[in-house]
Amino acid sequence: MALLAYGGTDSDDTELAPVDMITGPGNIYVTAAKRLCRSRVGIDAEAGPTEIAILADHSADPAHVAADLISQAEHDEMAASVLVTPSVELADATERALATQLESTKHRDRVTTALGGRQTAMVLVDDLDAGVRAVNAYAAEHLEIQTVDAAAVAARIHSAGAIFVGPWSPVSLGDYCAGSNHVLPTAGSARHSSGLSVQTFLRGIHVVEYTEAALKDVTGHVITLATAEDLPAHGEAVRRRFER
């Protein structure tokens, strides 16, 4: 990471220039290194442990919900697997399904630790509206919608890294096949950030070009605003262009 940010010399004395942008996921140490480098180079995000939130109602299959929660808990002991539902019956059935599926999952110890961590929860809400508010506030990296009319519910979500709509769209699909980017905002940063895309590598440069007549037309406005800010030299830089 330091080589990318600061450059260096290769073993054959080739000079390696520093880069302008560092992107991509990694473990907690990669994230810490990106944080240290971000004052020198741009980074995509400080990606933390993976997260899945599932907003589900009575129509969801608890075996599918449990499998999806386990799939992300498999990543890391600090992974967050959160079920948000107004259905006590679904929550209870999912808990039973988790216990059953944990018996056969390969990384049982890691998954069990993640599912038992403070970052993981089953959240009971009064109704689906409350569930929508909850997942928008949480702003998960991955959000599954397993409800009646899932597309309509998904349209109400404004904070999530990626949304997986309906019972046939598990997060694993996004990880390996669907084409959505796998580098997504975590730790609530989906409230203000997006996943990695080509936009990450693009910059906007503002270009200003006035004619003499156009500048003269706004001279008074510039001088007035500069005077109001007690920065008279700003206004003077415009006024002097029209001295005769």
From TrEMBL:
SUPFAM superfamilies for this protein: ALDH-like (SSF53720)
EC number(s) recorded for this UniProt protein: 1.1.1.23
Entry cofactors: Zn(2+)
Keywords from the UniProt entry: Amino-acid biosynthesis, Histidine biosynthesis, Metal-binding, NAD, Oxidoreductase, Zinc
GO molecular function, one term: metal ion binding
UniProt GO BP: L-histidine biosynthetic process
Amino-acid biosynthesis as UniProt keyword: yes
Catalytic activity: L-histidinol + 2 NAD(+) + H2O = L-histidine + 2 NADH + 3 H(+)
Taxonomic superkingdom: Bacteria
One Pfam family here: Histidinol_dh
Any single Gene Ontology cellular-component annotation: cytosol
Family label: Belongs to the histidinol dehydrogenase family.
Task of the protein: Catalyzes the sequential NAD-dependent oxidations of L-histidinol to L-histidinaldehyde and then to L-histidine.
Protein name: Histidinol dehydrogenase
Species: Mycobacterium talmoniae
